[in-house]
Amino acid sequence: ELVPEDLLNALKSLADPTRLRILRYLQDGPATTNDLAKFLRLRPPTMNHHLHILRLAGLVQVTISPSAERQYTIRKEGLDLTITALREFLPGD
């Protein structure tokens, strides 16, 4: 049986330890690219790359603040859908 593409993309995005750390940090609330880069000690372009992958996988969302600053938050429904898809793909007891 083939792995559904949405599930595969989400799992690939979660396979990177930096992206898992980003999600953990975002549990505390919204953050900018610079906030995340500073916390994880990465350059902002590197952080943008990771955030882009998480956004394409549906695991984070971005909003633009009134001052035109990008704020990233966890997309809880995206995480829930990933977990549900994995359970459906790997049914167990």
List keywords for this structure.
mainly alpha, single chain, two-stranded antiparallel ribbon
SSE diagram, text form:
Elements: H1 5-14, H2 17-26, H3 33-40, H4 44-56, E1 60-64, E2 70-74, H5 76-89
Antiparallel strand pairs: 1-2
Helix pairs in contact: 1-4, 3-4
What does this structure look like?
With 93 residues, the protein is mainly α. Helices cover 59% and strands 11% of the residues. It has five helices and two strands. The protein has helices at 5-14, 17-26, 33-40, 44-56, 76-89, and strands at residues 60-64, 70-74. Strands 1-2 form a two-stranded antiparallel ribbon. A hairpin with a 5-residue loop joins strand 1 (60-64) and strand 2. Helix 1 runs antiparallel to helix 4 (44-56) and helix 3 crosses helix 4 (44-56). The radius of gyration is 14 Å and the shape is elongated. The mean pLDDT is 92.
Question: Percent range for helical residues?
Answer: 55-70%
Approximate shape: elongated
Record field, number of beta strands:
2
Give the structural class: mainly alpha
H/E series, N to C? HHHHEEH
Strand content: 5-15%
This entry's quaternary arrangement is single chain
Distance between the termini: 19 Å
Spatial strand order of the main sheet: 1-2
In short:
With 93 residues, the protein is mainly alpha-helical.
